[in-house]
Description:
Elements lengths: L24 E6 L2 E6 L8 E3 L1 H12 L5
Protein name: DUF397 domain-containing protein
InterPro entries: DUF397
Organism: Actinomadura logoneensis
Amino acid sequence: MTVPQAFSRVLWRKSSHSSAEGQCVEVTRTSDGLAVRDSRNPDGPRLAIRPDVWEALRREIGGRCQR
């Protein structure tokens, strides 16, 4: 699979709380929101998310997770 040009030069980030086994998601900014991918499959599919949906997801998950 060829990585789309739009994602070939972006900086993907993952939480510092990610597991050592690499079981996490990575996030990057796009021109109209964010993209999320599985860190174990960096050339796999990406999920595009609008900024307002991302913030709602962060609030929902953040309220359930202990730091």
